[in-house]
TrEMBL record:
Residues 382-653 form the Peptidase M16 middle/third domain. Its cofactor is Zn(2+). This is Protease 3. One of its GO terms (cellular component) is cytoplasm. Pfam families: Peptidase_M16 (PF00675), Peptidase_M16_C (PF05193), Peptidase_M16_M (PF16187), PqqF-like_C_4 (PF22456).
Length: 920
């Protein structure tokens, strides 16, 4: 790591490949500020972090921190219009967001650099003089209530509530973080406005906040911006109520809440076990990453591992270790396990395997090479990390400023300064059956109570002495193994020599008729990484629901085999995936490039020499079936998005239909059908990274021979799109067991030409902010409101959507129609400045340079798959946008959105609202 000079007293460690300049400073009011000069930044960005979250909610106004987050966007003293800040950011090529966590909150935005100063002027007032207008308090209270109701069936929220109600009631974790109309106004003294003002004054002050500014501006310019716009943030004085949070003294769980088994009945089909081992806070261990090392050892998935042995028993389909909530005085170390039905029946034995592995680790210790391998990979990841967007960097660093020593603000996430043996020993001592919390999730489990929020049925009881004896039983020998030295750890850690420095576009290599192979050794991103995309065009894999279900099961079986054999490769920074898609099956390999060819060869071998395992087939079939059935309980708007694709695109299917096919699928039928899927096969390939052309040619030959493509005839991928009839609305309607109604309105482009694409892009850019403001902020129809440009295989489209807990489908449709009509009527009056800004924003989206190798590879691959093989479509579209006249767009909007719209209405009705007679 290279020290970077900032303020005279602070040296910030950074990666040797990090070209940015950093400066840590403090304003006169005590606000800590980090300035980041990035000469290559496409956007300038700002982030403010507050050292307060829902843990600071008053007990009688739970959800206040989250509600305050909403209200800060509802106007300030200098900019009382709630749309002023978001519209300004949207109109100048930016984005904005915020979140409220347990102990921190974060606000961030980005924008084109030339508009950074006026954006900061608007942004800064959120933290200086928010309006807290009673009018907007009432409206936004409806939005928070909608957000709460939208997630009533969300399984994560429902599980989270069980977690809260079975934890120490004196710990702030148990407070209701989201808030709703009842918790915000139903139990408290004083007005909600008064509580907002008091919370803001108490926690939103300079000593409790951090600010990060990122952009191509110089450090001096960034400092001037910070000083100009944030010097008025309040500071702590003896005369005000400003505070910083006190440390938490209460434990997360009482002793009575440890050594327990908790049953939870989900709404969706699920069969899971979450084994939680409560640990003390780990914030001070960030230079050593002890829990990360334990997660690596216990979550290993290679041969002989805990995961592998449990799969061999037929008890699980997946296992991960180490995740779980964490805070200033607590850390949950979770084993998150997808069980089979056999695993559920033997859940104590599954838990026994886990505790046996922990005991073996406690007795054997961790060998030095385990830590050194992790240390080496973390160092490589840090050195060759992908460039990230300015907005993500700003948000990340503003939180890091609250967690890490100043010199580690940039490097803290990657530090591994040596094995902390005493910490590891201490953590392992907490990992015992008497301390654990074992949660089982399945619809058949006995329950005896319901949570106060989200109506989750559950039961919690202590382990019996017999169960504890079973969990503590020591077998004659360890039941699993820990990782051996990893053969995939890269030795070549420098980019390969550049053969053609002037090459900027992929080149088509000579290949068999049935394989189209493209290659580019990247001259801009000089890192020892690469991406290999391989698409197998398989008409028989996607021509009906049954075939697609077979293809998905087959992909899961292949991944299941590869995950164990190739897990070391993933640990060594090489990722891979095999998945079905619209025209067949795709393979993607990425990460450090040196060993990727070897991994691709193993994947090809797994495809062609597939070994069928009936036990794994049954487990995967069961798991997929539950997942597909559960899609019926997802957000209704997401269901409509899936239906839209299924209705208009070949090779797209919805979960419940796939589940129906899966239910009758047998092992013999599957084995009989799979060879048919590969009867017709072509392939398209992209090799992009630091590989020279001779390596790319070797990879092309390997794929050609490995898949037997030499003598196959050429055929193109099937990409049909169903065309909607202009001037006639088509409709789809469904009902789902969700409390919300949802509606989506899709207008399809009627041509593939550049004019049509440019018009739809511009319409979305112009219509989106107003649609959100009118239907979400003004009318409060729901929490999920928006528009999106949705191209389908080159044909443009525009989607409008709303999900509401209270509005009828008729009311939502009327609101959408009225808004579109009003928009089209007023489009000709759009000010020239707004028109030009909209055009520039769209042009920037199309032509902004790629920030990293991953984004460039994705862009190149997308171009190849839509036959844009000269890679010029984006620039051509940008040129067309630039030359588009507003008068032409006015005519197009009236035709495509109103009089001659080729449109599809998709509606989803709540079964609850139908029963109550609220809807048609």
């Amino acid at each position: 790591m290279v020290p970077e000079n900032s303020s005279p007293s602070t040296r910030l460690e950074k990666s040797p490949n990090d070209h940015r300049q950093y400066q840590l400073t403090e304003l006169d009011n005590g606000l800590s500020v980090l300035l980041v000069h990035d000469a290559d930044a496409l956007h300038s960005a700002a982030s403010v972090a507050i050292n307060a979250g829902h843990f600071q909610d008053p007990p009688d106004v739970q959800g206040l921190a989250h509600f305050l987050e909403h209200m800060l966007f509802m106007g300030t003293d200098a900019f009382p219009d709630p749309d002023e800040y978001p519209d300004f950011v949207d109109q100048h090529g930016g984005q904005h967001n915020a979140w409220t966590g347990t102990e921190h909150s974060n606000f961030h935005f980005d924008i084109r650099p030339q508009h950074f100063a006026p954006a900061l002027e608007r942004f800064s007032r959120l933290f200086i003089a928010p309006g807290f207008s009673p009018q907007w308090i009432d409206k936004e209270l409806q939005a928070v209530e909608s957000e709460y109701r939208m997630k009533l069936n969300d399984e994560l929220r429902r599980l989270y509530q069980v977690h809260k109600e079975t934890a120490n009631p004196n710990h702030p974790f148990t407070k209701f973080s989201v808030g709703n109309a009842q918790t915000l106004v139903g139990n408290q003294d004083g007005s909600l406005q008064q509580h907002l003002q008091a919370f803001f004054k108490r926690w939103y002050h300079a000593a409790n906040m951090t600010l990060v500014l990122v952009g191509p501006q110089s450090l001096d310019e960034l400092h001037e911006l910070a000083s100009t716009y944030f010097s008025d943030v309040a500071e702590i004085t003896p005369d005000n109520t400003a505070q910083v949070p006190e440390s938490i003294s209460e434990p997360l769980y009482t002793e009575a809440q440890k050594g327990v088994v908790i049953h939870v009945r989900p709404l969706k089909n699920a069969c899971r076990m979450i084994l939680t081992l409560p640990l003390p806070g780990i914030n001070d261990d960030y230079p050593f990453k002890s829990t990360s090392l334990l997660a690596h050892m216990l979550g290993y998935e290679g041969p002989g591992s805990l995961c592998s042995e449990l799969k061999t028993k037929g008890w699980i389909t997946d296992l991960s270790a180490g995740g779980g909530i964490s805070g200033s005085n607590f850390k949950d170390f979770n084993f998150n396990i997808q069980l089979t039905q056999r695993g559920l029946d033997n859940y104590l034995q599954v838990a026994h395997f886990i505790f046996n592995a922990i005991d073996a680790l406690r007795q054997q210790g961790i060998e030095d090479f385990h830590y050194h391998e992790r240390q080496q990979m973390v160092a490589l990841s840090y050195r060759y990390q992908d460039a990230i967007r300015s907005i993500d960097l700003a948000s990340q660093l503003s939180i890091n400023m609250m967690h890490y020593a100043p010199e580690h603000i940039i490097s803290g996430d990657y530090l591994m300064q040596g094995m902390n043996h005493s910490k590891l020993s201490s953590l392992l001592d907490y990992m015992r059956p008497e301390q654990c919390r074992l949660m089982l999730i399945h619809h058949s489990l006995p329950v005896n109570q319901t949570t106060s929020l989200y109506d989750t049925a559950y039961r919690a009881e202590k382990f019996s002495s017999e169960q504890l004896r079973a969990l503590n039983h020591e077998p004659d020998q360890p039941l699993c193994q820990f990782p051996s030295p990893n053969p995939f750890i890269p030795q070549q850690v420098e980019p390969q020599p550049l053969r053609e420095p002037s090459a900027r576009l992929p080149r088509l290599l000579a290949s068999a008729p049935a394989l189209q192979s493209w290659h580019l050794q990247d001259a801009d991103f000089r890192v020892p990484k690469g991406h290999i995309y391989l698409s197998l065009v398989l008409p028989e894999a996607t021509n009906n629901t049954l075939a697609f279900a077979h293809a998905r099961v087959w992909c899961e079986l292949v991944l299941d085999k590869l995950n164990e054999r190739c897990y070391d490769a993933e640990v060594a920074g090489i990722q891979f995936n095999v998945y079905p898609q619209q025209s067949g099956i795709s393979i993607h390999v990425s990460g450090f490039s040196q060993r990727q060819p070897e991994l691709l060869q193993q994947i090809i071998k797994a495809l062609t020499d597939f070994e069928f395992d009936e036990q794994r087939f049954s487990a995967i079939q069961q798991h997929l079936y539950h997942n597909w059935i559960a899609l019926n309980r997802h957000k209704p708007i997401n269901h409509l998005f899936t239906v839209l694709n299924q209705t208009l695109q070949r090779g797209c299917y919805i979960g419940p239909d796939l589940a129906a096919e899966l239910k009758t699928m047998t092992a013999s039928k599957f084995q009989h059908h799979m060879p048919e899927i590969f009867r017709q096969m072509n392939a398209i390939m992209l090799i992009h990274g630091d590989w020279p052309i001779d390596t790319a040619q070797q990879l092309t030959t390997m794929v050609t021979q490995g898949l037997g493509l030499q003598n196959r005839p050429q055929q193109g991928p099937l990409r049909e799109v169903r065309l909607l009839e202009p001037g006639r609305d088509q409709r789809f309607h469904c009902r789902l067991p969700h409390p919300d109604n949802a509606i989506a309105y899709f207008c399809q482009g009627q041509s593939l030409n550049l004019d049509e694409k440019a018009h739809f892009l511009l319409l979305n850019q112009l219509i989106s902010p107003g649609f959100f403001s009118e239907l979400r902020t003004e009318q409060q129809l729901g929490y999920m409101v928006g528009t999106s440009y949705v191209p389908m295989n080159g044909r443009p489209g525009l989607l409008f959507y709303v999900q509401s807990p209270h509005a009828s489908l008729d009311d939502m449709e009327t609101a959408i129609r009225d808004f579109i009509r009003s928009f089209c009527e007023q489009l000709s009056e759009v000010p020239d400045a707004v028109w030009q800004s909209a055009k520039q924003s769209v042009i920037a989206q199309l032509t902004d340079r790629d920030p990293n190798l991953r984004v460039r590879a994705q862009r190149m691959w997308t171009s190849i798959n839509i036959d844009d093989t000269d890679f010029s479509l984006a620039q051509a579209m940008a040129d067309k946008v630039s030359s588009t006249q507003l008068s032409t767009l006015v005519e197009s909007a009236s035709s495509r959105l109103l009089t001659q719209a080729a449109a599809l209405w998709l509606t989803c009705e709540s079964e609850e609202s139908q029963a109550e007679g609220r809807d048609r």
